[in-house]
Amino acid sequence: MKEQVALGRYTxxxxxxxxxxxxxxxxxxxxxxxxxxxxAEGLPVAVVGLGSNLLVADDGFPGLVLKLAGELAAADxxxxxxxxxxxxxxxxxxxxxxxxxxGGFEFACxxxxxxxxxxxxxxxxxxxxxxxxxxxxxxxxxxxARWLTPQELGLRYRTSGLRHGQVVARAEFLLEPRPxxxxxxxxxxxxxxxxxxxxxxxxxxxxxxxxPDHELSAGRMLEVCGLRGYRSGGAQISPKHxxxxxxxxxxxxxxxxxxxxxxxxxxxxxxxxxxxxxxQLLGALEVPPLEP
Length: 292
Ligand SMILES: Cc1cc2nc3c(=O)[nH]c(=O)nc-3n(C[C@H](O)[C@H](O)[C@H](O)COP(=O)(O)OP(=O)(O)OC[C@H]3O[C@@H](n4cnc5c(N)ncnc54)[C@H](O)[C@@H]3O)c2cc1C
What we know:
Layout: E1 2-6, E2 18-23, H1 28-41, E3 45-47, E4 54-56, E5 61-66, E6 75-78, E7 81-85, H2 90-99, E8 102-103, H3 115-121, E9 124-125, E10 128-129, H4 130-133, E11 134-141, E12 144-148, H5 150-153, E13 167-174, E14 176-177, H6 180-197, H7 218-224, E15 231-232, E16 235-237, E17 245-247, H8 253-271, E18 280-282
Parallel strand pairs: 2-5, 3-5, 4-18
Antiparallel strand pairs: 1-2, 6-7, 7-13, 8-14, 9-10, 11-12, 11-13, 15-16, 16-17
Bound molecules: flavin-adenine dinucleotide (FAD).
Flavin-adenine dinucleotide binds next to strand 3, helix 3, strand 9 and strand 13.
């Protein structure tokens, strides 16, 4: 267990202050030990995956941050089942599925996160999502660990019913046999589409907002609002795709929040639509409410 660990290096945007406590449990027993300790100390607990949809307060997080490692970050595929620790990168899971000639996980090639972050967000792309392939997830908290079904996890569009303090320690996905060459071709096509549409060589945290129930996507709306390239401090709305915020030059999380607030204000003014952030916030950080 370490103290005062800077979280910026654990997020793809590269912003955020320190975690008061930071631990990297490698087994379920170690994880349960850490959770019981934090509970006894009265500390809040949160997990970082690959930090690819996470905005951490510039003041940091006053509790215990966990980053799953060891067997809690490994993956394996056999007999139609892909099983991964909560900290296993989705890219590693996809690699294991492909090696076992199991299809259905190809959508994950577009998502630079972990199994746990994927379950928490019900991450998805190109028509596939975690809810579509998940068999069950093992969730740990201060009272122990148990398997939950997708229904019990409350998976919906880019959200779940999970709360900080609940840790996805492991998950199992049901996949279908698929020839290696087909999997490779699907992944290559998805990656080419992605490269064309989104900033892939910048520090971002993926989609800022969920797509609203509207004929225009969040990105297209913000583009019409003239926000491409709009800047606050060291952060800017991507000139390539307006639903992305880039760390252009020494950004702070507060800069990203200022852009989120301005984008919401403009989308409501121009389209009468209230955009809801997809990015998850950690620590004392909030998106200011829209003025009436
Ligand atoms: C370039 C880029 C492209 C992206 N494209 C997509 C896309 O196409 N589709 C999509 O859905 N997302 C996309 N994202 C967003 C992001 O990759 C996903 O939301 C991903 O699921 C986040 O996973 P993570 O492990 O990085 O989670 P983090 O960002 O680290 O955390 C996200 C949330 O999950 C929680 N969490 C993480 N691990 C656990 C765990 N083990 N147990 C409990 N809670 C946990 C965190 O506390 C936090 O609240 C993109 C991001 C980037 C940077």
